[in-house]
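Write out the 3D structure for:
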Amino acid sequence: MRAPETHLSHVDFTKTQLGVLGGIIVLTIDQINPVKVFLHVFPSVAPWHIVTICMLLSLYIWVTEFKKLLYYGVRIFFHSILSIFFREVEVIGRDKLPRHGPIIFTVNHANQFIDAVSLVSSCSHKVSYLMAEASYRRRIVGDLAWALDVVPVKRAQDSAASGKGKVIFTKDESLSEDANTLIMTVSGTDTAFTEHLKVGDKIRPTGTPIGVKVTELMDDGKMIVDGSDVPPEEYEKVFTKTEPNTYDVLKKIDQKDVYGKVLDKLASGGCIGIFPEGGSHDRTDLLPLKVGVALIAYSALEKDDLNVPIVPVGLNYFRSHRWRGRATVEFGEPIYIDPSTLKDYKEGGTNKRRVCNELLDRIQDSMRSVIVATPDYDSLQLIHTARRLYQRKGLQGKEKQDMARRFAEGYKMLSLLTQGDPPERWLDLQQRMIAYNKELRELGIRDYQVPGLDREKSDMRELEPDDVLGILRIPYQLVHIMLLLLLAAIPTLFLNLPVGLLAGIYSERRRKKLLAKSKVKVRAYDVMLTEKVLFCIVAIPSLWFFYFLVLFLFTDFDGPTIGLFIVSLPVFAYMGIIATEAGMVSIKDIRPYYRRLFPSSRRKLRALPATRRQLQVDLRAFIKKVGPALGEIYYGKDLNWQQIQERSRLSSARLKDMSNDDNASQESGDKKNK
């Protein structure tokens, strides 16, 4: 028997198997059953004596270890959820985790509550989370969070209120001491700053999720804010507008109690999971990180002398908003605080902000090292297409992630090297790959099916449809599909389909509602699977209870029969899911052959393999030409992605500074000429 994909090593799994089998043998043979031997030797001891003692000991264990047992029970429940809603969850880099002691897990937030489920199910450590208080108060979510010993955090954005009037931001050069400090003057129109704001509150202009802290209130129409935590791209996009903009007010929240609970957990050897982006989203890159994770790490070092390892966790989902998608959980190399920076942290002020921002940059680099970060969804699709065309053999999940990151980083480096003006050959390749993807979508087939399209008889123009059916063995495929659908029909119709349809409708309504409220979501696909899971957690037991009532009230079945039927429902439902998935796979496999029955599709299908081969040749030739300029991205085997991300960030910053200097020089020259 092969060891399952769990946290047990092969040796431990073998020991467990032998122990269980040995126990069964011992209990089966009366002569060596230890309990019966004991009762035979001491006839004055009755069986109920032993039962009573064992029950009392079991009760004691349950009472003293309740939260631990509850945690692992919830984790088993989460495992079952993932096995139902995902066809595959692959874990990469689990060997990089420290075996003992506290850990801070920094996780990208791409799939709402499913992110926590994925980490808990794939990590051998007991992980407590920081969760938004608004989510903690939700039924089911809050109950499961309590079982996981989650620490609720009150977020300012959850109680954000629209500010009165409109504002304009102006950078104050005299107060901005260095490159890490950004002080701005806020001028208001029809505002009442002194009435609605206090020093320490934040305001968030429309168009960005980033708020800036109020440091001085001058009057109702003017104040000073600190925007040092605003990323440069957000500053350029929102804070440099010359027209008045609306804004939200974010009240200051004291998080001392939260930090105290987190530090206590770390000091006792516990592990904390943090989503530094602050909220779930469906973008293809990280949101700006909140400073809280840096403050926690430095506070642990300052107060408890704990240099806690910060482990990045990359959650990569494929078709995550649909049933039976695929997920990859990747653990990166842990990073540590440089102890020499603790002195600057203790000094406070500008030095504290500087070292916290430097740590945040390192955390961001480490988190990008375990995901495939791209500017937008179209770029991500293009990168995955290029990866599939370039690879010469089937790849494992780890290899796929590595190659996709190489393409993503190479794409970014080429954009920087060409300064946004790529060569015609590159643009031509992009357009051809986009057209190829569009052709696949229109025909309803996948890229992996294309190489097999020209393995059948090539000249089919003179064949009748019946001949095509015979040659392509479609009757066999149809029989296979029908058998699978028949197997899945009863459990699907009576157990899965009603819940699935209602869950889809419910999740779509929730998606639209949350998209309207969000400042960062693109399509809000990140909430759909969570809402489906929450709906199913309530709907499925309710449906089973309904069937129980029907059998109990309207049939003459006895109790054991009804009980056996109800207990069997989970097995029937899961069998229906597996059979339905297999049937859908067979339908997808037969779709190219079905499309060949139509003359217009037949011509397109016949041309696709040649199109793909030519794309492969041109793509590989292009990469061979530009690859040497990319250095280790092209030549390296085992890459240190954290270092690569750090160099990429610094290179981007230098190029941007050079561009800004050039623009400033140009403006200065224009003024002199005038």
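Confidence is low (pLDDT under 50) at residues 1-7.
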